[in-house]
Structure formats: structure tokens, C-alpha cells
Amino acid sequence: MRVVIELKRSADPAIVLNNLYRHTALQSSFSCNMVAILDGQPRLMGLKEILQAFLDFRCSVIERRARFKLSQALERKHIVEGIVVGLDNLDAVIQIIRETTNHAAATEALVKGFGLSEKQAEALLDITLRKLTSLERKKFVDEAKILSEEISKLNDLLSSKKLIFQLIQQEAADLKNKFSTPRRSLIDESVNSEVDDIDIIPNEEMLLILSEKGYVKRMNPNTFNLQHRGTIGKSVGKMRMNDTASDFIVCQTHDHVLYFSDKGIVYSARAYKIPESTRTATGTPLVQLLPLSDGERITSIIPVSEFGEDQYLVMLTVNGYIKKVPLNAFSSIRSSGIISIQLVPGDELKWVRRCGNDDLVALASQKGKVIVNSCDKIRPLGRNTRGAGAMKLKEGDKMAAMDIIPATADKMPESYSSRVRYRCPPWLLFIAENGIGKRVPLNAFRQSRFNVVGLVGYKLPEDCRLAAVFVAGLSLGDDGESDEQVVLVSQSGTVNRIKVKDISIQSRYARGVILMRLEHAGKIQSASLISAAAAEVAED
């Protein structure tokens, strides 16, 4: 019989096969009751007990065999010693034999004349004439020496348990070499009755794309080719009607993925739980992976490999509330999710980022205002809290972006001057809704406290809003320029991927350059920054 199981395009063959092993008779385990007769009684023994019983049996066999050989050697040595005595007194022995009338009298005369035992006298009388030569006498002397050495070894063996175990090991190796045959069964210690899915799935790099309507899909990083700025781009895939891509991240298949919703609830699942799909696939609804309530949307995705004690999650709401929570507070999340932040009516959680106390956090509003401050200035809070004010927003303004500046890249100026032009990395990469953008050096800003209006980061037209802000220049090439790439996603689902170094470095008040010609694609819906090392793609 041949059974063929055809899988959907999104199914993982390794997981399906593991489930077949686990829930069907394709692979079954059985128990073995090892009952053996020990000391004349049947006993149920485990592996250790039965091996110990086998060793005890082998020890007894070797001891009985050694005692038998020892008794034979002692008896033979006794006979040989009597023969040697007779040969040393050969003329007297012959004279006694010639003077006696029968066999019994000769035996008795030899016993009395040379102090021999009856067995030695019998053996001496049984010797043929050809063994009376001097050469034959030497053979008996040599045999006596050999027997003495053998007796000594046997006595040592019987008196040492270590020598007995060594002999057991040697005899087992000899049997293996003499009667070796290929093993008919396979013993695999790595296989048990319950194999987790994570054990059979390779830990590879992957891309996660989240849409505004709650669809997610997992793709290979090489799906998109590198393009130049100002091009139309390549579609991220078939989107649902009125749906757009909102997030684009790189992670590993074994990572814990934290899903933060607009209602302040966080869910957790392994990255490989998301079915892998092609670029043209629609994706999988998150409601099939997570227990989302009606109207609840996932707004941020955070991949976590390890829950470090010195790491935090910084959360920012649309209305400008910010708070910091230890990362290990999310190490154990129940299937129904847990609260990550308390929200006031009308507010929603939009951005979540990982950070350390030495890092900086950059906040930007839709009207281009920017605040850069240390993460250490944010007091760690519990999950079930609201947080503090991040920025004083003017009427009609809302938060637009948040990103983290690692401590290793912190290059804030000691004294701020608007007349000095800075161009060295890192930069703040600004992207506006109309497809224009620019790079502004980080040292063109100064650290300012939270809950203020902020500095001008991008002077935008009245009808335009800021779409995203990233910290660029953390990964540099040989030329000292950024080797990162930015992925722009329009409202129609069109994706454009360009090099960060192709984006001009300008001042905080400059207009910027065209990054993506939108035409009929609407506005920029979302943007993602990807390092060159994290996304190995082929040049067009």
C-alpha cells in the first residue's frame, strides 16, 4: 500500500509529518516487560538490574571456569613433579620394578622409596621406554614451569574482581570481532515519543509582512530585488480590497513574536507558526493565529530571541503617551493575551520598540516635530499602567513615529548650534506621506526632555504629514556610507526598496528628495529600515 498526502502550498511538510507521527499509527512506541529468572525465581527487572544480573552471572562463570582449570593444573603439576623425580632416579626405579612381582607391589615400593603419592607412582609406571631419554625429561621440567605460571595467574584472577571484569570485557570484544554482523535495528537517542515542532524546523532568517486589515505572511528575504530611488517598485503581493501593508520586519523562525494590538493587549507565538507564502499570496488572517476581539488590530510586532533582564520595551500611543516596561515581563504570555498598557478612551497603542537604559529614543509627530532623549529618563513601569506624556501635541497633530538610537551610535553634540552643518552618521531618516524624504544628522539635534513641543525635524507643507522616522547609519560600508535599505509601502500595496545612501543629507528645514513616485498609488502607508546583512538580495 502506498499513501500520498498532498499538502497546501502554505503547509510545512516537516510539521505535518511530525503530527502524523504524533497522532497516527505511522510511528508507534511500545513498552517491554523484562522478566527474567534470577536465583530460581521470576523477577521484573529494569535495564540496570538486568545488566547487573548479567555481570554477576559472567563473574560466576569465570570463577567456576578458573577453579576448574586451577584444579586440573595442580593435578597435572603433581603428576609431572613425580615423573621428574623418577627420571632423576631412573636406575633405582628400574631396579625396584625388576625386583617386584606385580603392579601393586611396584607401586608400593616406589611410594616408600621416593616419597611419591600413589598417582605419581602410577604415572611413573605408565611411562614408555622412549620417554626415558634426557630430552623427554627436559620436556617434563618445562611443562612443570608452565603449569606453575598458569597456577599463579589463575590464583591472581580468583583473588581480583578487577581482573575478572577486564577478562569479561576482553571476551566480549573477542566475540564481537569473531561473530560480528551488521545491526538490524537503529538506536537513536535523539528521538522520543514527543518531538516538538521547533526541533525539526531550521532556525532561518525570514520576513514578516503585516497588513492594516490583519493579514500576515512569512516570506524568504530574497523575494524582493534591490531598486534605485525614484522607481515605481514591485508589489508586495495581492492585497485584499482596501487593505495596505503596515509593517515589514526581519526575524528568525525560532523567535518569539510579540504581537501588540491597538487596544494595548500583547499576544505571543513562535515565528514559524505563520505559514510561509509567496510574494503574490494574500497571507493568513491573524484571527486564525491569535484570539483577537472584534475590531482589534495588531499595530506592532517585536521578534524576541531571548528575554534579557537589561532589556526594555518602550511603548508610544497615538495621543503621545510613552512608557517603558522590562522585556522579561512578557516572557510568559497566556494564549488569550495579557495587558501591555492602559489606554485612555480614544487612544491606541501604535509603536513598540526594544531598548536599553543607555540608548536614546527619537519621537516624531505628524507635523515634523522631534524629541530625542535618553531611555534612562523613562521610569520603568508595570504592564497595567498608562505611562507619561511624551510630547505636547498641537491641535490636529498626532504622533507619527518612534525609533531607538543604540548607545554605541550616540553622537549628540555637547553644545547645539544651528549654524554648524553636520553630515557624519548616524542620521535620522525622515519619510513623508507624499514620497519625499531626507537624512538629517543626529548631531543636528539636542537632547530635550519629554512632554515638550520638540524641535523642528521636517518642515512639511500643510497638506502633508510625516509617515516614518528611522535611525540610519548604524551599519556602514567600506566607503563610510550606510549599507542599509529602506522599504516603502504605499496605500495600494506597492513596495519600493532603495539604498539609504542614495537619500540626500540635508538640514532640518530642507524639503527633501523624491523617494518614490506615487502617482496612482496613493500615499506612503508604512516604511521599514533593513540592514544589508539582514537582507541578502541580488542586484537587478
TrEMBL record:
| GO CC annotations on file | cytoplasm; DNA topoisomerase type II (double strand cut, ATP-hydrolyzing) complex
What terms describe the molecular function in GO for this protein? ATP binding; DNA binding; DNA topoisomerase type II (double strand cut, ATP-hydrolyzing) activity
Q: Which reaction does it catalyse?
A: ATP-dependent breakage, passage and rejoining of double-stranded DNA
What SMART domains is this protein classified in? TOP4c
A Pfam family it matches: DNA_topoisoIV
User: EC number(s) for this protein?
Assistant: 5.6.2.2
UniProt keywords (A-Z) are:
ATP-binding, DNA-binding, Isomerase, Nucleotide-binding, Topoisomerase
- Keyword Ribosomal protein among record annotations: no
Q: Matching InterPro entries, A to Z?
A: GyrA/parC_rep (IPR006691), Gyrase/topoIV_suA_C (IPR035516), Topo_IIA-like_dom_sf (IPR013760), Topo_IIA_A/C_ab (IPR013758), Topo_IIA_A_a_sf (IPR013757), Topo_IIA_dom_A (IPR002205), Type_II_DNA_Topoisomerases (IPR050220)
Coiled-coil boundaries? none
Give any single GO term for biological process.
DNA topological change
Domain named Topo IIA-type catalytic: residues: 1-200
Q: Which domain of life is it from?
A: Eukaryota
Keyword Nucleotide-binding carried by entry: yes
Name the enzyme group at the top EC level: isomerase
> Which PANTHER family does this entry report, sorted A to Z?
DNA GYRASE SUBUNIT A, CHLOROPLASTIC_MITOCHONDRIAL, DNA GYRASE/TOPOISOMERASE SUBUNIT A
In which family does this protein belong, per the annotation? Belongs to the type II topoisomerase GyrA/ParC subunit family.
**What is this protein called in UniProt?**
DNA topoisomerase (ATP-hydrolyzing)
